[in-house]
Specification:
Blueprint (H helix, E strand, L loop, with lengths): L1 E8 L1 E7 L5 E8 L8 E5 L2 E5 L7 E6 L1 E7 L4 E12 L14 E5 L2
Antiparallel strand pairs: 1-6, 2-5, 2-8, 3-7, 4-5, 8-9
Amino acid sequence: MRATGVADLWGVRFRIEVPENLLSFDALQVGPFLTENGTVAVTNNNLEILRPLDAGGVSGSGQIALVAWVYEGPIGNGVVELEGEALDADGDVIPGVDFNGGTVTITN
């Protein structure tokens, strides 16, 4: 997950739905853009990455996180659905920020 051209970004909340018959959550690696000493919470398909309370927001572009899944099979196609919120330094939702899902194709 990357941020591109954001202003005053303090945190993100995501809900990621992947095809359970194809993939299961494996690991999360937080990128350097949002946090080095903040908080990270992962529960089921929900992900929250927040900067330290006194850190303020960041602006620009960079990697937020890398999320890895384990292949569960069978070969096939599926849709990755992504819902998210971008938060400013006051913890308020930043309007107009889009989060895009994608597709996954498992081939042999």
